[in-house]
Amino acid sequence: MNRRDFLKGAGAAIVPAALPGALWASASPVAAAAGVSQSSQVTAPITAVVFDERYPDCQIFADALERHGAKAFATNQDAVQLWYGPLRIYLAEHPGRVAGLTTYADFSVSRACGRELKLTKIYEGAHDGRRSRTELAHRLSTIVHDEELIAAVAGDSWAAQLANALHSLPAPSVGGSARLATATTPRSAGHPGYLNSWLLS
């Protein structure tokens, strides 16, 4: 199965999130409704990071998490094959959180495949440069404290700083609701226009 076939089959679950404004208008889930339990209070390490090897920001993000002990997995433009192949095998032996900085399509695939492994999204970021050649607009949604994340995307090295902040992101509280935050930074060289960062736990 390739990414196109996967997205067609999962279209009913993915399309609503792709509608303009859907991410931010609906970002008020309760942690308990998302499957967060009392036992998830212990913060698990990020054991794997998924990245799009075509873009420097994604590589910087992955490199930063590798320094914290995560294993990096390039999508090779086919996240479905990754999740049903080497990443799934690795997670069976090294359970934990999975982070990523990818295209929206690969984020959608990762979120759907993560559900099969009982992984729930606890953070999502949009890094949007489509309206400016010089600036990136960052929109962050998380069900845990976000002050560190806001600070992480406040400088030129946002991809590495964000990875470091996600590494130390605490476990979500039961009953916590999503928070939204925005920031603007200079657009990095090689940014494709739109990327998603995310954390599944």
In short:
This protein has 201 residues and is of the alpha/beta class.
Would you give an account of this structure?
With 201 residues, the chain is an alpha/beta fold. It has one domain (3-10, 30-200). The protein is built from 9 helices and 7 strands. It has helices at 3-9, 11-18, 22-25, 56-67, 79-84, 86-93, 104-116, 147-152, 158-167, and strands at residues 46-51, 71-74, 97-102, 121-128, 135-142, 179-186, 194-200. It has a 7-stranded mixed sheet, with helices on both faces. It is globular. The two termini are 25 Å apart. Mean pLDDT is 82; it is low at 11-41.
Give the number of DSSP strands.
7
Low-confidence region ranges:
11-41
* Helix content range: 25-40%
Class derived from helix and strand content: alpha/beta
Mean pLDDT: 82
Radius of gyration: 16 Å
The tally of domains stands at 1
Shape by Cα distribution: globular
Give the strand order of the largest sheet, numbering strands 1, 2, ... along the chain: 2-1-3-7-4-5-6
The amount of beta strand, in percent, is 15-25%
Labels describing this entry:
globular; 23% strand; 9 helices; alpha/beta; 201 residues
